[in-house]
Specification:
Helix content is 42%, strand content 15%. It is of the alpha/beta class and 365 residues long. Bound molecules: inosine-5'-diphosphate and magnesium ion. The site of inosine-5'-diphosphate has 9 residues, from loops.
Length: 365
Amino acid sequence: MSKSKAKAVIWDMDGVIADTAAFHFKAWHEVFQKRGVNFTKEDFRRNFGQRNDTIIRNTLGEKVSQSDIDAIAREKEETFRKVLGQNIKSLPGAIPLLKSLREYGFKLALASSAPMGNIRLITGALGIANYFHVIVTGRDVAEGKPSPQGFLLAAQRLGVEPKDCIVVEDAIAGVTACKRAGMHCIAVTNTHPGDRLAEADLVIDSLGEVTVDDLEKLLNPDRQRSSKMERSLVLIKPDAMERGLAGTLLARLESLGLRLVALKMLHMDKELAQEHYAVHKEKPFFNGLVKYITSAPIVAAVFEGERAVEVIRKAMGATDPTKAEAGTIRSDFGLDIERNTIHGSDSVETAEGEIKLFFAEDEIY
Ligand code: IDP
Ligand code: MG
Protein backbone atom coordinates (compact mmCIF):
# COMPACT_ATOMS: atom_id res chain seq x y z
CA MET A 1 0.00 0.00 0.00
CA SER A 2 1.44 3.32 -0.96
CA LYS A 3 2.11 5.62 1.94
CA SER A 4 0.88 8.78 0.28
CA LYS A 5 -2.61 7.54 -0.52
CA ALA A 6 -5.11 8.71 2.08
CA LYS A 7 -6.94 5.94 3.86
CA ALA A 8 -9.47 6.27 6.60
CA VAL A 9 -11.30 4.40 9.30
CA ILE A 10 -14.75 5.68 10.16
CA TRP A 11 -15.96 4.69 13.59
CA ASP A 12 -19.35 4.19 15.04
CA MET A 13 -19.29 5.05 18.74
CA ASP A 14 -21.98 3.31 20.78
CA GLY A 15 -21.43 -0.44 20.83
CA VAL A 16 -18.07 -0.17 19.04
CA ILE A 17 -15.96 2.18 21.15
CA ALA A 18 -18.16 2.70 24.19
CA ASP A 19 -20.15 0.10 26.08
CA THR A 20 -23.31 2.15 26.45
CA ALA A 21 -26.15 -0.15 25.37
CA ALA A 22 -27.49 -0.78 28.88
CA PHE A 23 -27.68 2.97 29.57
CA HIS A 24 -29.41 3.74 26.29
CA PHE A 25 -31.98 1.05 27.00
CA LYS A 26 -32.57 2.38 30.49
CA ALA A 27 -33.08 5.91 29.20
CA TRP A 28 -35.46 4.89 26.41
CA HIS A 29 -37.42 2.64 28.74
CA GLU A 30 -37.83 5.43 31.29
CA VAL A 31 -38.84 8.08 28.74
CA PHE A 32 -41.39 5.89 26.93
CA GLN A 33 -42.80 4.51 30.19
CA LYS A 34 -43.73 8.08 31.19
CA ARG A 35 -45.79 8.14 27.99
CA GLY A 36 -47.50 4.83 28.74
CA VAL A 37 -45.46 2.72 26.33
CA ASN A 38 -43.52 -0.35 27.40
CA PHE A 39 -40.27 -0.21 25.40
CA THR A 40 -38.82 -3.73 25.58
CA LYS A 41 -35.31 -5.06 25.09
CA GLU A 42 -36.50 -6.50 21.79
CA ASP A 43 -37.73 -3.02 20.71
CA PHE A 44 -34.33 -1.70 21.68
CA ARG A 45 -32.46 -4.34 19.68
CA ARG A 46 -34.61 -3.76 16.62
CA ASN A 47 -33.97 -0.01 16.63
CA PHE A 48 -30.31 -0.15 17.57
CA GLY A 49 -27.95 2.25 15.82
CA GLN A 50 -30.70 4.40 14.33
CA ARG A 51 -31.38 8.04 14.93
CA ASN A 52 -33.63 9.19 17.80
CA ASP A 53 -36.36 10.56 15.51
CA THR A 54 -36.59 7.19 13.76
CA ILE A 55 -36.74 5.28 17.04
CA ILE A 56 -39.45 7.59 18.39
CA ARG A 57 -41.54 7.30 15.21
CA ASN A 58 -41.08 3.52 15.18
CA THR A 59 -42.30 3.37 18.79
CA LEU A 60 -45.04 6.04 19.02
CA GLY A 61 -46.24 5.94 15.41
CA GLU A 62 -45.96 8.33 12.47
CA LYS A 63 -48.50 10.79 13.95
CA VAL A 64 -46.13 12.11 16.60
CA SER A 65 -45.28 15.78 16.00
CA GLN A 66 -41.80 17.14 15.33
CA SER A 67 -41.89 19.22 18.52
CA ASP A 68 -42.80 16.11 20.55
CA ILE A 69 -39.99 14.20 18.84
CA ASP A 70 -37.52 16.94 19.75
CA ALA A 71 -38.70 17.04 23.37
CA ILE A 72 -38.63 13.26 23.80
CA ALA A 73 -35.20 13.01 22.19
CA ARG A 74 -33.83 15.74 24.43
CA GLU A 75 -35.28 14.06 27.51
CA LYS A 76 -33.91 10.69 26.47
CA GLU A 77 -30.39 12.05 26.01
CA GLU A 78 -30.49 13.92 29.32
CA THR A 79 -31.62 10.73 31.03
CA PHE A 80 -28.94 8.78 29.17
CA ARG A 81 -26.16 11.11 30.27
CA LYS A 82 -27.48 11.05 33.82
CA VAL A 83 -27.61 7.24 34.08
CA LEU A 84 -24.30 6.91 32.25
CA GLY A 85 -22.64 9.25 34.77
CA GLN A 86 -19.15 8.03 35.48
CA ASN A 87 -19.84 4.53 34.16
CA ILE A 88 -18.24 5.07 30.76
CA LYS A 89 -16.33 1.98 29.71
CA SER A 90 -14.60 1.31 26.43
CA LEU A 91 -15.13 -1.95 24.59
CA PRO A 92 -12.15 -4.37 24.34
CA GLY A 93 -9.53 -3.50 21.73
CA ALA A 94 -11.14 -0.26 20.51
CA ILE A 95 -8.80 2.29 22.05
CA PRO A 96 -5.54 0.38 21.35
CA LEU A 97 -6.61 0.02 17.69
CA LEU A 98 -7.46 3.73 17.47
CA LYS A 99 -4.01 4.57 18.86
CA SER A 100 -2.22 2.31 16.38
CA LEU A 101 -4.21 3.64 13.43
CA ARG A 102 -3.26 7.16 14.39
CA GLU A 103 0.41 6.20 14.56
CA TYR A 104 0.19 4.57 11.13
CA GLY A 105 -1.22 7.72 9.56
CA PHE A 106 -4.80 6.65 9.01
CA LYS A 107 -7.37 9.42 8.93
CA LEU A 108 -10.02 8.88 11.56
CA ALA A 109 -13.65 9.93 11.69
CA LEU A 110 -16.47 9.33 14.09
CA ALA A 111 -19.85 8.94 12.42
CA SER A 112 -22.43 8.35 15.08
CA SER A 113 -26.19 8.68 15.24
CA ALA A 114 -25.67 10.15 18.69
CA PRO A 115 -25.99 13.87 19.41
CA MET A 116 -22.82 15.93 19.92
CA GLY A 117 -23.46 16.14 23.69
CA ASN A 118 -23.07 12.38 24.03
CA ILE A 119 -20.05 12.28 21.73
CA ARG A 120 -18.25 14.97 23.75
CA LEU A 121 -19.09 13.25 27.04
CA ILE A 122 -17.98 9.81 25.93
CA THR A 123 -14.87 10.66 23.89
CA GLY A 124 -13.82 13.06 26.65
CA ALA A 125 -14.22 10.45 29.39
CA LEU A 126 -12.29 7.88 27.35
CA GLY A 127 -9.46 10.31 26.53
CA ILE A 128 -9.97 10.09 22.77
CA ALA A 129 -11.63 13.44 22.10
CA ASN A 130 -8.77 14.64 19.88
CA TYR A 131 -8.30 11.38 17.95
CA PHE A 132 -10.81 12.17 15.24
CA HIS A 133 -10.12 14.46 12.30
CA VAL A 134 -13.83 14.64 11.58
CA ILE A 135 -16.98 14.06 13.63
CA VAL A 136 -20.33 13.55 11.92
CA THR A 137 -23.49 13.34 14.00
CA GLY A 138 -27.01 12.35 13.06
CA ARG A 139 -27.89 16.05 12.78
CA ASP A 140 -25.40 16.70 10.00
CA VAL A 141 -27.34 14.63 7.48
CA ALA A 142 -30.91 14.49 6.22
CA GLU A 143 -31.21 10.74 6.73
CA GLY A 144 -29.70 8.58 9.46
CA LYS A 145 -28.35 5.03 9.11
CA PRO A 146 -29.13 2.80 7.18
CA SER A 147 -28.76 5.69 4.75
CA PRO A 148 -25.11 6.04 3.67
CA GLN A 149 -25.21 9.85 4.02
CA GLY A 150 -23.29 10.08 7.31
CA PHE A 151 -20.43 7.87 6.15
CA LEU A 152 -20.24 9.62 2.78
CA LEU A 153 -20.12 13.01 4.49
CA ALA A 154 -17.34 11.80 6.81
CA ALA A 155 -15.30 10.55 3.82
CA GLN A 156 -15.86 13.80 1.95
CA ARG A 157 -14.75 15.89 4.92
CA LEU A 158 -11.68 13.68 5.34
CA GLY A 159 -10.87 13.98 1.64
CA VAL A 160 -10.75 10.20 1.25
CA GLU A 161 -12.56 8.17 -1.40
CA PRO A 162 -15.22 5.74 -0.12
CA LYS A 163 -13.27 2.75 -1.47
CA ASP A 164 -10.34 3.75 0.75
CA CYS A 165 -12.51 3.87 3.87
CA ILE A 166 -13.16 1.17 6.43
CA VAL A 167 -16.20 1.50 8.67
CA VAL A 168 -16.28 -0.16 12.09
CA GLU A 169 -19.85 -0.94 13.13
CA ASP A 170 -21.89 -3.10 15.48
CA ALA A 171 -25.40 -2.27 14.25
CA ILE A 172 -27.19 -3.89 11.33
CA ALA A 173 -28.34 -0.46 10.11
CA GLY A 174 -24.71 0.70 10.25
CA VAL A 175 -23.39 -2.23 8.22
CA THR A 176 -26.07 -1.60 5.61
CA ALA A 177 -25.21 2.11 5.50
CA CYS A 178 -21.52 1.28 5.06
CA LYS A 179 -22.08 -1.08 2.15
CA ARG A 180 -24.43 1.44 0.49
CA ALA A 181 -21.61 3.98 0.81
CA GLY A 182 -19.28 1.61 -1.07
CA MET A 183 -16.93 1.23 1.90
CA HIS A 184 -15.24 -1.74 3.53
CA CYS A 185 -16.88 -2.93 6.72
CA ILE A 186 -15.67 -4.49 9.93
CA ALA A 187 -18.54 -5.60 12.15
CA VAL A 188 -18.07 -6.36 15.84
CA THR A 189 -20.55 -8.71 17.47
CA ASN A 190 -20.94 -6.53 20.56
CA THR A 191 -24.65 -5.98 19.91
CA HIS A 192 -25.85 -8.46 17.30
CA PRO A 193 -24.81 -12.05 16.54
CA GLY A 194 -22.40 -12.48 13.62
CA ASP A 195 -24.95 -14.00 11.24
CA ARG A 196 -27.00 -10.78 11.32
CA LEU A 197 -23.89 -8.81 10.28
CA ALA A 198 -22.83 -11.08 7.42
CA GLU A 199 -22.95 -8.21 4.91
CA ALA A 200 -19.70 -6.93 6.48
CA ASP A 201 -16.33 -7.86 4.96
CA LEU A 202 -15.00 -8.97 8.32
CA VAL A 203 -17.04 -10.05 11.35
CA ILE A 204 -15.17 -10.26 14.64
CA ASP A 205 -16.08 -10.79 18.28
CA SER A 206 -13.66 -8.16 19.57
CA LEU A 207 -11.54 -5.38 18.11
CA GLY A 208 -8.65 -6.98 19.98
CA GLU A 209 -8.65 -9.60 17.19
CA VAL A 210 -7.56 -7.20 14.43
CA THR A 211 -4.34 -5.31 13.75
CA VAL A 212 -3.53 -2.34 11.54
CA ASP A 213 -2.11 -4.87 9.09
CA ASP A 214 -5.50 -6.65 8.82
CA LEU A 215 -7.09 -3.30 7.98
CA GLU A 216 -4.46 -2.55 5.35
CA LYS A 217 -5.18 -5.93 3.77
CA LEU A 218 -8.89 -5.14 3.69
CA LEU A 219 -8.18 -1.94 1.77
CA ASN A 220 -5.70 -3.54 -0.58
CA PRO A 221 -5.94 -7.33 -0.90
CA ASP A 222 -3.14 -7.32 -3.54
CA ARG A 223 -0.72 -5.72 -1.15
CA GLN A 224 0.47 -9.05 0.17
CA ARG A 225 1.40 -10.28 -3.25
CA SER A 226 3.18 -7.11 -4.30
CA SER A 227 5.26 -6.66 -1.19
CA LYS A 228 5.62 -10.31 -0.29
CA MET A 229 8.90 -11.24 1.25
CA GLU A 230 10.39 -14.17 -0.61
CA ARG A 231 13.18 -16.55 0.30
CA SER A 232 15.63 -18.20 -2.03
CA LEU A 233 18.26 -20.88 -1.57
CA VAL A 234 21.73 -19.92 -2.76
CA LEU A 235 24.64 -22.36 -3.15
CA ILE A 236 28.20 -21.20 -3.66
CA LYS A 237 29.32 -23.99 -5.95
CA PRO A 238 32.69 -25.87 -5.76
CA ASP A 239 34.33 -23.81 -8.53
CA ALA A 240 33.69 -20.62 -6.55
CA MET A 241 34.74 -22.16 -3.24
CA GLU A 242 38.02 -23.31 -4.76
CA ARG A 243 38.76 -19.78 -5.93
CA GLY A 244 37.86 -18.16 -2.59
CA LEU A 245 34.79 -16.36 -3.92
CA ALA A 246 32.30 -17.17 -1.15
CA GLY A 247 32.61 -13.85 0.63
CA THR A 248 32.55 -11.89 -2.63
CA LEU A 249 29.35 -13.59 -3.80
CA LEU A 250 27.53 -13.28 -0.47
CA ALA A 251 28.49 -9.61 -0.32
CA ARG A 252 27.16 -9.10 -3.83
CA LEU A 253 23.77 -10.49 -2.90
CA GLU A 254 23.69 -8.51 0.33
CA SER A 255 24.46 -5.34 -1.60
CA LEU A 256 21.22 -5.89 -3.56
CA GLY A 257 19.30 -5.27 -0.35
CA LEU A 258 18.69 -8.95 0.33
CA ARG A 259 19.00 -10.17 3.88
CA LEU A 260 21.05 -13.20 4.82
CA VAL A 261 18.81 -15.31 7.09
CA ALA A 262 20.63 -18.67 7.05
CA LEU A 263 24.19 -19.80 6.31
CA LYS A 264 26.25 -23.00 6.51
CA MET A 265 29.19 -24.79 4.97
CA LEU A 266 28.72 -28.43 4.04
CA HIS A 267 30.04 -31.17 1.85
CA MET A 268 26.98 -32.38 -0.07
CA ASP A 269 26.70 -36.14 -0.35
CA LYS A 270 25.43 -37.96 -3.42
CA GLU A 271 21.98 -38.45 -1.95
CA LEU A 272 21.44 -34.77 -1.19
CA ALA A 273 22.83 -33.79 -4.59
CA GLN A 274 20.48 -36.18 -6.39
CA GLU A 275 17.53 -34.87 -4.45
CA HIS A 276 18.46 -31.23 -4.95
CA TYR A 277 18.85 -31.72 -8.71
CA ALA A 278 16.04 -34.31 -9.03
CA VAL A 279 14.31 -32.35 -11.83
CA HIS A 280 17.37 -33.01 -13.99
CA LYS A 281 17.69 -36.74 -13.32
CA GLU A 282 16.82 -37.66 -16.92
CA LYS A 283 19.30 -35.14 -18.37
CA PRO A 284 22.55 -36.34 -19.91
CA PHE A 285 24.54 -34.04 -17.62
CA PHE A 286 22.91 -35.32 -14.40
CA ASN A 287 25.64 -37.74 -13.23
CA GLY A 288 28.39 -35.24 -14.06
CA LEU A 289 26.48 -32.52 -12.19
CA VAL A 290 26.08 -34.68 -9.05
CA LYS A 291 29.78 -35.56 -9.18
CA TYR A 292 30.72 -31.92 -9.57
CA ILE A 293 28.51 -30.50 -6.81
CA THR A 294 29.78 -33.17 -4.35
CA SER A 295 33.42 -32.64 -5.30
CA ALA A 296 34.19 -30.05 -2.59
CA PRO A 297 32.59 -28.36 0.42
CA ILE A 298 30.19 -25.62 -0.51
CA VAL A 299 28.35 -22.77 1.20
CA ALA A 300 24.56 -22.83 1.41
CA ALA A 301 22.62 -19.69 2.25
CA VAL A 302 19.07 -18.42 2.43
CA PHE A 303 18.42 -14.86 1.36
CA GLU A 304 15.20 -13.03 2.10
CA GLY A 305 13.78 -9.92 0.50
CA GLU A 306 11.12 -8.48 -1.74
CA ARG A 307 10.96 -10.62 -4.91
CA ALA A 308 14.17 -12.31 -3.73
CA VAL A 309 13.89 -15.20 -6.20
CA GLU A 310 13.74 -12.98 -9.27
CA VAL A 311 16.34 -10.54 -7.93
CA ILE A 312 18.85 -13.35 -7.37
CA ARG A 313 18.16 -15.03 -10.73
CA LYS A 314 18.84 -11.72 -12.47
CA ALA A 315 22.06 -11.18 -10.52
CA MET A 316 23.23 -14.72 -11.37
CA GLY A 317 22.74 -14.47 -15.12
CA ALA A 318 22.08 -17.29 -17.62
CA THR A 319 23.04 -20.89 -16.81
CA ASP A 320 25.75 -20.84 -19.48
CA PRO A 321 28.33 -18.18 -18.48
CA THR A 322 29.14 -17.46 -22.13
CA LYS A 323 25.50 -16.43 -22.57
CA ALA A 324 25.16 -14.60 -19.26
CA GLU A 325 24.65 -10.86 -19.46
CA ALA A 326 27.71 -8.72 -18.69
CA GLY A 327 27.95 -7.78 -15.03
CA THR A 328 26.14 -10.88 -13.76
CA ILE A 329 27.84 -13.29 -11.37
CA ARG A 330 28.07 -16.09 -13.91
CA SER A 331 29.39 -13.75 -16.58
CA ASP A 332 32.03 -12.42 -14.19
CA PHE A 333 33.09 -15.69 -12.55
CA GLY A 334 31.56 -18.72 -14.33
CA LEU A 335 33.99 -21.17 -15.94
CA ASP A 336 31.61 -23.24 -18.09
CA ILE A 337 28.00 -24.39 -18.20
CA GLU A 338 28.60 -26.90 -15.38
CA ARG A 339 31.03 -24.94 -13.22
CA ASN A 340 28.85 -21.86 -13.22
CA THR A 341 29.69 -20.61 -9.71
CA ILE A 342 26.30 -20.18 -8.05
CA HIS A 343 22.89 -21.74 -7.61
CA GLY A 344 19.67 -19.80 -6.92
CA SER A 345 16.12 -21.17 -6.65
CA ASP A 346 14.10 -20.64 -9.84
CA SER A 347 10.69 -20.06 -8.19
CA VAL A 348 9.15 -19.39 -4.79
CA GLU A 349 7.77 -22.95 -4.73
CA THR A 350 11.11 -24.53 -5.63
CA ALA A 351 12.81 -22.34 -3.04
CA GLU A 352 10.57 -23.67 -0.30
CA GLY A 353 11.49 -27.29 -1.07
CA GLU A 354 15.18 -26.53 -1.60
CA ILE A 355 15.53 -24.57 1.64
CA LYS A 356 14.07 -27.52 3.56
CA LEU A 357 16.73 -29.82 2.08
CA PHE A 358 19.54 -27.70 3.50
CA PHE A 359 18.17 -26.02 6.61
CA ALA A 360 16.08 -26.96 9.60
CA GLU A 361 13.43 -24.43 10.62
CA ASP A 362 15.45 -23.26 13.63
CA GLU A 363 18.49 -22.59 11.46
CA ILE A 364 16.72 -19.82 9.60
CA TYR A 365 16.77 -16.43 11.28
P1 IDP B 1 20.26 -23.02 -13.31
O1 IDP B 1 21.36 -23.38 -12.32
O2 IDP B 1 20.58 -21.80 -14.04
O3 IDP B 1 18.91 -23.06 -12.69
P2 IDP B 1 19.52 -25.58 -14.53
O4 IDP B 1 19.04 -25.74 -15.93
O5 IDP B 1 18.56 -25.76 -13.43
O6 IDP B 1 20.27 -24.17 -14.44
O7 IDP B 1 20.69 -26.63 -14.32
C1 IDP B 1 21.19 -26.90 -13.04
C2 IDP B 1 22.70 -26.95 -13.11
O8 IDP B 1 23.10 -28.04 -13.92
C3 IDP B 1 23.36 -25.76 -13.77
O9 IDP B 1 23.53 -24.67 -12.88
C4 IDP B 1 24.65 -26.31 -14.21
O10 IDP B 1 25.57 -26.36 -13.14
C5 IDP B 1 24.26 -27.72 -14.63
N1 IDP B 1 23.95 -27.80 -16.07
C6 IDP B 1 22.89 -27.31 -16.72
N2 IDP B 1 22.93 -27.58 -18.02
C7 IDP B 1 24.09 -28.26 -18.24
C8 IDP B 1 24.71 -28.83 -19.41
O11 IDP B 1 24.22 -28.74 -20.50
N3 IDP B 1 25.90 -29.46 -19.19
C9 IDP B 1 26.47 -29.57 -17.97
N4 IDP B 1 25.90 -29.05 -16.86
C10 IDP B 1 24.74 -28.41 -16.99
MG1 MG C 1 17.74 -24.68 -11.86
